[in-house]
Structure formats: C-alpha cells, structure tokens
Amino acid sequence: MTQSAPEPLTPWDRVEAALTLLAVDPVGLKGLWLRARASGLRDRITAALPALPLPVRRIHPTIGDDALFGGLDLAATLASGTPVIQKGVLDEPAALVLAMAERALPGLAARLGTALDVPRHCLIALDEGAERDELLPSGLVDRLGLFLDLDGLPWGDTREIHIDPERLAAARARLATVTTPAKAGETLARVAAQLGIASLRAPLLALAAARAQAAWEGHPTVTEDDLRRGADLVFAHRALPATEEAPPEPEPPQDEPEDDTPPPPEQEQQQGEELFPEEMLVEAVRAALPSDLLEQLAAGRAARMARGASGTGSAKTGNRRGRPLPSRQGRLGTGARIDLVGTLRAAAPWQPLRRRQQKSDAVLLVRSSDIRIKRFKETSDRVLIFAVDASGSSAMARLSEAKGAVELLLGQAYARRDHVSLVAFRGRDAELMLPPTRSLVQTKRRLAGLPGGGGTPLAHGLRLALAVGAQARSRGMTPTIALLTDGRGNIALDGSANRAQAEEDALKLATTIRASGLPSIVIDTANRPQPSLQTLAKALDAPYIALPRADAHRLSSVLGAAMGD
Q1: Is residue 387 located within the same domain as residue 356?
Q2: Calpha distance 490→427 (Å, rounded)
Q3: Which residue among 376, 408, 437 closes a domain?
Q4: What is the span of the domain harbouring residue 173?
Q5: Closest CA to 286 of 187, 368, 194
Q6: ∠ CA 183-179-276 to the nearest 5 degrees?
C-alpha cells in the first residue's frame, strides 16, 4: 500500500524545525539563508542564534580581507610606530551573521564559500533584497543548507522560539553515532535530479539534515520521516517550478508468457528494504513551499545569472574593465588601487587643523579616512550561440538564413564587443562549427561548407550549446542561446532513432539549461507553429517566436533584440 506524503509544515513550524536542526549540526548544514526585511519578526529568529554551539560574530558585506583573515593593521601601525597584528574573524570557529547579504561582493562570497568548505564555521545570511534578482551569490546559495522566507508571515502566527537545552545537548552527543541506510544518499541524489537540482552539494546537505533530525528525535538510524524532513528543508527552495509534461504515448501491449515462479529470496529482501519511495519525497518537497515563491526564486536566479551578476544588486562582473567611476572612500591593504588625486583632495582642507593638533610642520598629514579607492565599470562581452537545426530537406534554406544572420550580427559586433558561435545538429550528433568569435573573415570561411540533411538530434544540439555557454561564462562572458528549428527531435542521446526518448532527453536538457540560468530564445521556422517547440520553450523559460518565413534581416533583428540591443 502506497503511503501519501504528510501535510507540509506550517510557516512557523518550518522556522522552528530549521533552527533546531541548525542548532544540532551547524557545521554539517553550513548555515541558513534567511530572506526577510529587518523587523521584529526577524529579530525573533536571530534571538535564537545563541543556541548554536559556536560564538556568534556579525560581519558586513564590505568587510575586507584583513578583518576576515587578520594580518597587519596598517592604520594602527602608522599611528603607534610599531607593527600591530590583528586577528581575523575566521581564525576561530564561529557562526557568522552576514547582514545585507544580497550586497555581498563576488570576492567576499568566494572567500566565505571557501571557509564553509572547511568544517569549522556556519553562515547565517540575512537577505533583505527587495527585487527578485537581489539574491545571494550563487556560491553561497549552493553551500547553505537551510532557507527561510518570512514574507507575508503575520506576527500573530509566530511565537517565541525555545529549544530545550538538555534535549539539544543529548542530540549533539548522539549525532556522531547516527547511521544512515545504504540507499539513502542514492535516493536523495535521484530526488534532487527529478526536482531539477544540478548541485551535488544539495543531496549531501539533505543527508546531513536527515541525520540531525534523527539525532533530535533519538533515532539510532535515519528513518523515512527523517529523510523526508531533510529533503523538505534542503531541496524545497532549490527545486525548479514544476512544468506540465505531455502525457506519454501509449505503448502497444506485448504478449509475455506468464511466469508463476516466485521471486528469489534476495529480490524479496531488496523490495522490502526500499524504505524511501522517491515519488513521496518529490511530492513532499513540491508541497513544502508555495509555487509563487519557487517561481520568484527561479526567476531571480535566471535574471542574476543572465546578466552576469552574482547577487550584488547593481554590481556586475565581467571580463573587461570599462570606463572609470568616481572614487570612493576605502582602506589600505584591500588590494584596490589608490586614487592619489582624490586622496589629496580629501586631505587638503584638514591640513591647518591637523598641524595645530599635532604641533607639526609636516608638509602633508594624511589619515586613513582620507584614502580614496579607484573604481571602474566592469563590462562583459556578450556571445550569441546559434543552435541551428541542419536536418531534413529544408536544411539548406534554413542554414542559408542562419548564415546571413550570423554575418549581419558580426558586422555590428565590433562596436558592441559581441561574439557569435554556431552549433549545428544533424544526423546523429551535433558539431561546434564556430567557436565564439568576432572575426568576420573566419566566420565566412567556417560557414561556407556547413553541411545539412539527416535526422534531428535536438538533444545533442542543446547539450553542446549548454557546454559552449558554460565555457563562455567561465571566461566572464554573457552567453545567450538561440535555437532555430522547425520540428521535434527524433534522435535520442544514446543515438537511437526513438522519438519519445529524444523528446524526453530534450526536455531534460532544457530543464538543465534553465537551472543554469543561461538565457535562451526558441525560433520556430516551421510553416505552422509547433506545439512541441512551445513546450520546449516553456521548459527553457525562454520566449517562443514563430518565424515561418524568416530571412537573415528578420533573424538578425529578433536576435539583436533578444540580446538587449
């Protein structure tokens, strides 16, 4: 008899459950992402942090390396005339509370992420973002096991948080002895894949949460309820919103001989040991958070990654330094370049007063508050990845228009520093015909002999476009995938001519592209709009455009608009 998933936790029960598990194993769960504005409600949660077995230390998003790791205190050294060494907040194990975490710079996020990889610290990230793309940097989201959102939670539905200290101490002592069934980790990994979670850290964090739940409940071994609670708290905010899938085509019945032979004892034992039904875990995770919240988180991730941001509001990372910006006040020792003119301009009005105070006839007296740091606008090269269907009898006309659109876009690329890349899929595989480039001569040479005809390995084309986009992003570029096709795929990833499997593979890859945050656009070049391509566009969270008689100029204008021109 199949059990149904239990009712999800109420919002405040979820808060108490997350804080309890964090108090049991803060190092294993890495920390908490708390999305809430500064309020009395948030103060109720932060008031429970002293229950953690680590000292609580507060940090801010502009903290420097000297405060994090310690080192020479330049200001104090200059004032005293002798070296003054200060300790960093990461020198001792601690629970770090990061205020305004959505404004954390990429460098700080990388340093905190590295510190969390060592089992010494945990991080409570206070996210006060007002817009959907004002989220934590992805490196911190990936590492923090727990997530809470207080938006819309009324004060009357909350209460003071009290964690029994005696039970908490017993749970911490029991944690090291809790065992996990052999299939628990494998089950969590499969559930994460079904929810569209690409990170390999998520199943490990869910397993840590399940072990903490078992220790809190006094279980010597992780049970099904413990695993469900761990998956609920760790997977729910990471899952992609559910998409409607087309019903599978019925398979013809096959006459199989009846076999009354009873299953061997080993098979019966394996069936009896299946303690964690994956469908129940997936259902429980889906029901844990409201769908609109998952949509907002997914949209925020996609918007942030699409523009090359890292959850820092208006800041933007890129692979190219642009025009200078007005300098700002800063400190020595942060690795930034000093704006000498700005520093002198800030110090000049105070020279008479400082000479009188110090009774000095020095030409120039500069203090740490005078230091000004240079800033530059970071820009990112854009790359448009064409994934072109080169199969079928109409391939030559479609490829001709794609070639013309590529050349038109490249002709305007020099001023915008844009790049283009071309992936062609035909037969039983996909091929990178043109790596990201701005060379018009090289592009024409590569496009001249582009072949066409054969089957439609749509999944292969999406997989190769995803790889090209990931490589471009690793180089600081901003990629966009443009899919040009006129029908459904009929070649699966294993090379078989199985239309049903090919469509399933394409939808899975579309979900992966969506989870990675790569923006995309689907251009349907068929004579009539194809419902399968509309479904694929929905899985990609991409705009769908039907251009049955698209020429090079129309393709160029549509794709230019998609890239923000």
Answers
A1: no
A2: 10
A3: 376
A4: 11-152+163-235
A5: 194
A6: 35
Backbone angles phi, psi at 366, to 5 degrees: -115, 135
Number of domains forming the structure of the chain? 3
Contact 240, 291 (CB under 8 A): no
Bridge partners for 389 per DSSP = 425
Q: Say if 410 falls within a structural domain.
A: yes
In tens, the pLDDT along 477-532 reads 888 898 888 777 888 888 888 888 888 899 989 988 988 888 888 888 777 788 88
Do 110 and 175 have their domain in common? yes
pTM: predicted TM-score of the whole model, two decimal places: 0.58
Q: Terminal CA-to-CA distance of the chain, rounded, Å?
A: 58
* 110-144 residues labelled b (16+ CB within 10 A) or e (exposed): ebbbebbeeeebbbbbbbbbeebbbbbbbbbbbbb
Instruction: Find, among 482, 417, 426, 496, the residue nearest to 458 by Cα.
Output: 426
Residues 371 and 402 in one domain: no
309 vs 315: CA distance, rounded Å = 7
Which pair of tokens denotes residue 435? 């790596």
How would DSSP label each residue in 64-97? Answer: -HHHHHEEE-HHHHHHHSS--EEE-TTSS--EEE
Same domain flag for 397 and 516? yes
Same-domain pairing of 336 and 436: no
DSSP assignments along 186-232, one per residue: HHHHHHHHHTT---SHHHHHHHHHHHHHHHHHT-SB--HHHHHHHHH
CA distances 29 to 42, 146, 225, 261, Å, are 20, 7, 18, 48
pLDDT tens for each residue of 306-362: 444 444 333 444 555 556 777 778 776 556 778 888 888 888 888 888 888 877 777
| Phi-psi label, residue 209: left if phi above 0, alpha if psi -120 to 50, beta otherwise | alpha
Residue 315 has what pLDDT?
Answer: 40
Q: Hunting for tokens 């007002």 — which residue is that?
A: 130
The span from the CA of 157 to the CA of 112, in Å, is 34
**Lookup: tokens for 164:** 């029994």
